[in-house]
Amino acid sequence: MHKLGILLSGRGSNFLAIADSIASGRLRGCEIAAVVSNLADASGLAAARARGLNAVAIEARGRKRAEHDAEIIACLRQHHVDLVCLAGYMRLLSPGFVQAFPQRILNIHPSLLPAFPGLDAQLQAFEYGVQVSGCSVHFVDEQLDHGVIILQKAVPVLEGDDAPTLAARILAQEHIAYSEAIARVLSGRYEIVGRRYLLKP
Ligand code: GAR
């Protein structure tokens, strides 16, 4: 049984979508071993606790990034995590963190990468005037929103949209995409050629 470690900083709707996929049997062969937040008051952490999951706050305030990350790594190891899923985790990982879980850290980003990395991707896309946006699930490497893309889902930008309505349309796809990407990675039936993620039969 694979053990997922979820890192979040906010409401945790992507975490809850993953938890629901596992509970309903749509995502098999894994369980959530720990939910970790850099913010003790993240509502996603409370939601994890309410579901009886190991929910741990590891505050970053006043600490060096590497030191904070080392504590998170120790927590993930303690819970035997073998796949780390960033779900609205709004901190950059140190190189040491990325190296501790090689090709075993996933992130979801609310744009079609490489467009609009960084903060407020939906607002960036809306203001740029794109007519299609979406979300990307990718492996985490040492650069921001940069690792190999596992899967993307596109949504249209519609007449009458504003950034929040676009963000909501993207979020609905995020909730589907993340579990699909986790299943793909856990299946092991893929290879990475250059930057390309290729599914094997
Ligand atoms: C999601 O839209 C996720 O894609 C985004 O934060 C939101 C978290 O929502 N992540 C990033 O922007 C990372 N660069 P959630 O807490 O409800 O899952």
Would you kindly provide a written description of the structure presented here, covering whatever features stand out?
The chain folds into 2 domains: 1-102, 3-Layer(aba) Sandwich (Rossmann fold); 107-135 and 150-201, Formyl transferase, N-terminal domain (Rossmann fold), CATH 3.40.50.170. A 7-stranded mixed beta sheet has the order 3-2-1-4-5-6-7, with helices on both faces. 36% of the residues lie in helices and 25% in strands. The chain has helices at residues 13-23, 43-50, 65-78, 95-100, 121-128, 163-187, and strands at residues 2-8, 30-37, 55-57, 83-86, 105-109, 132-139, 149-156, 190-193, 196-199. It is α/β, with parallel strands linked by helices. It has 6 helices and 9 strands, in the order E-H-E-H-E-H-E-H-E-H-E-E-H-E-E. It is globular and about 50 Å long. Strand 4, helix 4 and strand 5 form a beta-alpha-beta unit. The structure holds glycinamide ribonucleotide. The site of glycinamide ribonucleotide (GAR) has 16 residues, from helix 1, strand 5 and helix 6.
Question: What are the key terms here?
Answer:
201 residues; two-stranded antiparallel ribbon; 2 domains; binds glycinamide ribonucleotide; seven-stranded mixed β-sheet; Rossmann fold; 25% strand; alpha/beta; globular
